[in-house]
């Protein structure tokens, strides 16, 4: 029976039963009080029946809405459970007496089911749902070091670059970027030999156990392109292949290509499809990147450049982060080197996080802005390359765009009570500053 008709039938039966029950109670009341019946009493009784049938329900709703401790716990639990089931992708609870027995849902594949972990993923592509493990990326450097014919034409000095030199370097750097961005990584073509294509995809698909117990969520294969075996300045640019008909493969290719084209000097040759083993046999979004032409003399120089290889790895990672709805974690730039005779040391003030200070000729120097701020000194300024505290100028050193002052000068000015070198002046690991009011 149609659910709507079933609901209508049930409602009609329930209404009819209520009417019959009410008529029975009225008839019983009339028979019992026939001799002394008063119309006022009958009207009051009818009002009582109305209140009993609907008024009390309304009154109960009012009480539970304004006084939650009067609510029916079973009803609250049913509402909460229904809400959770719907959030997890299940069917809304339906009373059996209204809808009849529902068919049991087919068991969902764990990978395709919605969980609380992926409900929080961005809304850019809600159809891409991932399990609660880390996202696993399979990486592949195309060919091998000794694969015949996969190299640049010969340069004027008689040298050449093997394609796998570029492919491997990019993948090695890519793996580092991916791990920094909290991806799991399986390198399916490790080693110098030309790993069979089936082995590569079987590892990605976990047909050959890959150590993660599951197939990868995406596979990235890196190659260098070639139009022939001789130099050709007309062929140029980056292109990416994906499996024809793969909506997710195309989306992944678009995201990666967007960053590669923005971050490198090469032109965009677009997205393409072809009958390639890597994209065809991988059971997940798969792309094959052609990062430039080995037979274009200008691009060959780029392909040999460590800076270009690093840029490719970074941009591929940015594209993967965009595809999976993650924020890319930038590389922390290394601190500039300190001048000769200057050593870094931690400056500790109470329970605050340590500050980066310096040791110069046995004296401790502290970063002026951070330390004066935490000590509550308001009457200071930076003028003519010196720090002034009140009317007094203190010795200042500017190193790597940061102004440093001697900690002992803060003692002389009465801002600090004392300075302690831990464990001693010779082998100092940290410098403890004691504010005047704290000692």
TrEMBL record:
Lineage, highest ranks first: Bacteria, Bacillati, Bacillota, Bacilli, Bacillales
Protein's recorded name: MurNAc-LAA domain-containing protein
Domain MurNAc-LAA span(s) in chain numbering: 201-321
Domain of life: Bacteria
Annotated keywords: Hydrolase
Listed Pfam families: Amidase_3
